[in-house]
Specification:
mainly alpha, three-stranded antiparallel beta sheet, 16 helices, about 400 residues
Length: about 400
């Protein structure tokens, strides 16, 4: 791609982001409750009339709506109001075009920065679409509905993360740049982790709690990005460096990289050996299981991919070269997201807004295709520095709003 094409693609991405924000501002947002009305809510809730009907909404969502306080104000359900998110009367009406445009931006981030993609997916659902304020408005008037919308936000994030991981896994598998055996044991750990998270948190987490923890983890991701820019964060072991050098040489000579790609040399419960570009690596399946469990537990709770933890785990603990880590991390994220989505939606009945998810998945795919073709022209340190600043802002904003009910003026 020449410089002219790069500038065109960059301009398109910026335009998409601006259009997403502009269209989102045109959508009716759930107003925040004033201090006076918020203080009066507990007393009003005790005597106010309940909806008393599922309004045709399925499963736990219908039950949550039936228990909500009836009315036409903030945090109330008016059965006669126009239906919006998930078919709830009076809920925000989401424009699929906004979802599509924002998802292109998110998909681009997924395929260039990786670790920050899940964060921006969450920012879209909570802030751009206004679902965060909507969920928070039911804190006292309809606690069950507050938690249902929160779970829906978490699962919506997982759909976007999962598709991006699928696209990446397929591309890396074709190049033999991922370790299937390692992905399998990480995935087994993810299975147990997602079951634990789903059965201990589904329907139990208030939006403010989710938002606060989301903000704290954004700080962790920002710290990881800062660390990766230091000399200590960029160094690797000798075998990993030699394999990386051999890979780079093969790419430079335009030879078939699949011939020296990942090969499994030995398989066992104590140790698995693989080779990559003339170097041999080994790892413990047990440690892979443990790592997959803890990383996937955090990722499934927040609805983010967990790549920001998989990458240092695979490079520092397992000792793999980065050219193998990216693909293996994507496979691990994919397995974790599949389990998380299944457990939340099938076992716990969490719902999503399908028209929005459909538009977003198309946008994620397009963004994931654009990313590799443009990201390589942006200096890595510049790209990382931008998202470190964003991490500091988003982390501060969501942590203060979630845990301390403090809203930043911008």
């Amino acid at each position: 791609m020449n410089k002219k094409k790069f500038l065109v693609w960059t301009s398109v991405l910026i335009l998409l982001s601006v259009m997403s924000l502009a269209l989102a501002q045109q959508q009716p947002q759930q107003p925040a409750a004033s201090p006076q009305s918020a203080a009066a809510q507990p007393q009003a809730t005790a005597t106010a009339e309940k909806v008393g009907d599922t309004l045709g909404l399925p499963g736990k969502l219908g039950i949550a709506v039936s228990k909500a306080t009836k009315g036409s104000g903030t945090g109330l359900i008016d059965p006669a109001a126009e239906r919006g998110y998930m078919g709830i009367p009076g809920a925000p009406k989401l424009n699929p075009i906004v979802g599509f445009l924002w998802a292109i931006w998110v998909g681009w981030i997924f395929s260039t920065v990786g670790a920050f993609g899940g964060i921006m997916a969450g920012v879209g659902h909570m802030t751009i679409y206004g679902l965060g304020n909507y969920a928070k408005s039911f804190k006292t008037t309809a606690p069950d509905l507050n938690k249902m919308v929160t779970d829906s936000i978490r699962v919506s994030n997982q759909w976007l993360v999962g598709l991006s991981a699928l696209v990446s896994s397929v591309n890396y598998a074709k190049q033999k740049r991922l370790v299937p055996a390692l992905g399998f044991f990480l995935g087994v750990g993810a299975l147990f982790a997602t079951l634990l998270v789903v059965f201990t948190t589904a329907g139990k987490i208030k939006f403010s709690q989710y938002q606060g923890w989301f903000g704290l983890v954004v700080f962790v991701i920002g710290g990881f990005m800062v660390y990766k820019m230091t000399p200590a964060g960029t160094k690797g072991n000798k075998a990993a460096k030699e394999a990386a050098a051999a890979f780079q040489e093969a790419v430079k000579k335009k030879t078939d990289i699949t011939e020296q790609g990942v090969k499994t040399l030995g398989w066992g419960l104590a140790k698995i050996e693989i080779s990559f570009f003339g170097q041999t690596f080994s790892f413990s399946p047990i440690w892979a299981f443990v790592g997959g469990f803890f990383i996937s537990a955090l990722a499934s709770f927040l609805g983010i991919g967990g790549g920001f933890l998989y990458v240092p785990f695979l490079t520092s603990v397992v000792g793999l070269p980065m050219y193998v880590v990216a693909g293996t991390s994507a496979l691990s994220v994919l397995i974790g997201m599949i389990f998380a989505i299944f457990n939340f939606m099938v076992l716990k009945g969490v719902m999503v807004h399908w028209s929005l998810i459909g538009a977003e998945l198309v946008g994620i795919f397009i963004g994931s295709m654009i990313g590799p073709r443009t990201g390589k022209y942006i200096p890595p340190r510049v790209l990382t520095s931008i998202f470190i600043v964003l991490a500091a802002y988003i982390g501060t904003k969501y942590t203060l709003a979630g845990f301390f009910a403090i809203k930043l003026p911008f």
